[in-house]
Amino acid sequence: MEIIEFRISRYGNTPIFGVCLSEGQNWLVIRENEVDYSLDGIKFINKKYIRHRTIVDKDTMKHEILSLKYMNYEKDKCFIGNFNLNVSSEFFQSLKKKNYLLSVGLDRSDEIYVGWIKNIYEKSISLNTIGTHTEDTGMMNIPFDRIRFINIDTDYLNSLNLYMEIKKETQP
Length: 172
What we know:
alpha+beta
């Protein structure tokens, strides 16, 4: 199991840590370590924006703790094995087929968009977005080359999904 650290261009100097699940020509996939040894969702990072990538030394406390805590490594690797990480349009097709609620980070660290992939074009996706209270905020077209990362299966996204399910059940 490889624990990596890197930074994303134009996202400041705060490093991102995670368990490396897979890597293709265009995308790197990790189970992210958000804070204090807490592993959260799966993060797909556009490799052209990765800078200062290093492998966390196996003798460090961070590597030892994350290795001990992370038991879903093989399950996650199998899960993301169906994603083509070499061809962006095919990668996005896989995400769309699964109908994941996802968050998309663009070229500004203060912008995160949440929604579902509606369409995939030659060089972009259209995202049906929702706001922080799960209200529909419309469609947006996002060029592949603006996407820094995509998150799925995070606590935040799973919480929004849960809220929407409860909301749907209680509406007449």
